[in-house]
User: Fold this.
Amino acid sequence: MGKILWDKRYSGFVWHFIFTLPFIGLSLLFLQFTSGVTWFLISSVLRIIFGTGILLISCKLFELRPSEILSFKNIKGALATGAGFLIFFLFFLIQIVSGFGEINGLTIGIFLTRVLLQQLTTGFYEEINYRFLLLNGLKHTSNTTGMKLLYVFSGSVLFGLLHCVTGWDTYRFLTTAAIGFAFAVIFVKSGNILLTMILHFVYDFLVHIIAFVQWNNNPFFDGICACSEAAYIVMFVISLIILIYSPQFNKKKLC
Assistant:
């Protein structure tokens, strides 16, 4: 049993399911009885509790201190490996600006709990779980291109599945898996998990803001929206190329 739980190569996947299954179960349970501000507060607390638990297990599994995991090490390399996501994010910002009309129905309570607090805790929980815990074991393997692809694709599929727990949606699965893939490449190539947490939060923050936006439709905005699927593909392809062909961007070659 100890071998299964503490093998640095693959035990991150074992611990992932140990934490993820009860997290999903509790989330679905609370969702049945709460809604609105109350639900977003409970959801945020669950993310903090489970994310902290994963951080502590990761420290023990990989023999690291929290400060070694949550650091801005190799920030230039991390930004370089994030080229795919950063280009996609620029496209996303242009899309928002080109069609932004006005915000309707966003109360202070919803902003603070759903848009701000829940997305802050989501960035922490999902990155420490789906990127660090799942992928840090890669550096204890042969670390070949095939192993990189296996780990990153596995983590991306699990990340996409997480977002379809309440009902299957192929488009949602593919788009979230693609974003997860881009974040995974940043971590695998640079060893920096803190940047992915920040990028994750900023992106989710805007996604939940625009849920309350009344759009100002115009030809340019409509044309940008028609290219959304292409933007995801470009992000994925650039990230895949960086994963396979670029050199390590971490001087210590963590992964």
User: Anything to note?
Assistant: The longest helix spans residues 108-135. The beta strands are 100-103, 213-215. Residues 251-255 have pLDDT under 50 and may be disordered. Residues 2-245 form one domain.
